[in-house]
Design goal:
It is a single chain. The protein is an alpha+beta fold. It has one domain. The chain is built from one helix and three strands. A three-stranded antiparallel sheet has the order 1-2-3, with helices on one face.
Length: 66
Amino acid sequence: MKYRVILQKSDEGYSVSCVDLPGCWSQGDTEAEALENIKDAIQEYLSAREDLLRGTPGAEMREVTI
């Protein structure tokens, strides 16, 4: 699956956030490191979201097409 990210250079290196997943961000010393780190952050974000859904009685995940 593809996710859009915003990559920004800063004094400390690079910050990167995922547009489609609010609050999902990471950073790295180099552009390549930041992009690798956001992949891990996205996987952790999605895993945590699934865990929360499992703990919500009566909730089910569905997909819609727009």
